[in-house]
From TrEMBL:
<dbReference type="GO" id="GO:0003677">
    <property type="term" value="F:DNA binding"/>
</dbReference>
<protein>
    <recommendedName>
        <fullName>UPF0335 protein CFR75_11385</fullName>
    </recommendedName>
</protein>
<feature type="coiled-coil region">
    <location>
        <begin position="22"/>
        <end position="49"/>
    </location>
</feature>
<dbReference type="InterPro" id="IPR018753">
    <property type="entry name" value="GapR-like"/>
</dbReference>
<comment type="similarity">
    <text>Belongs to the UPF0335 family.</text>
</comment>
<dbReference type="Pfam" id="PF10073">
    <property type="entry name" value="GapR_DNA-bd"/>
</dbReference>
<dbReference type="InterPro" id="IPR046367">
    <property type="entry name" value="GapR-like_DNA-bd"/>
</dbReference>
<feature type="domain" description="GapR-like DNA-binding">
    <location>
        <begin position="18"/>
        <end position="89"/>
    </location>
</feature>
<keyword id="KW-0175">Coiled coil</keyword>
Length: 90
């Protein structure tokens, strides 16, 4: 209960909106978006490094996508890929 009273005092209400809380939420999202932007730049740099070293970036991206999946899902997709390829005479 004390925590709720403290929150109520800290949140300056404007038109029924807790302005301090709203400002805090917006600022946190803005900080995270800046971090995401920085991380995206870092990832881009790593892919550039991979490409300059002779690695195929498309294949690396595909491997990363596969590693995020469950092993059973990967096995099922690979099995279906082989079946489809055989059906097409590949």
């Amino acid at each position: 209960m004390l925590h709720d009273d403290q929150d109520a005092r800290e949140d300056h209400a404007v038109g029924g909106i807790a302005a301090d809380r709203l400002r805090s939420i917006i600022e946190r999202v803005e900080r995270l978006e800046e971090e995401r932007k920085a991380l995206s730049g870092d990832i881009k740099d790593i892919f550039s490094e991979a490409k300059s070293t002779g690695f195929d970036v498309k294949v690396i991206r595909q491997i990363i996508r596969i590693r995020k999946q469950e092993p059973a899902e990967v096995e099922e997709l690979e099995t279906l890929l082989q079946i489809y390829k055989r059906a097409l005479g590949m």
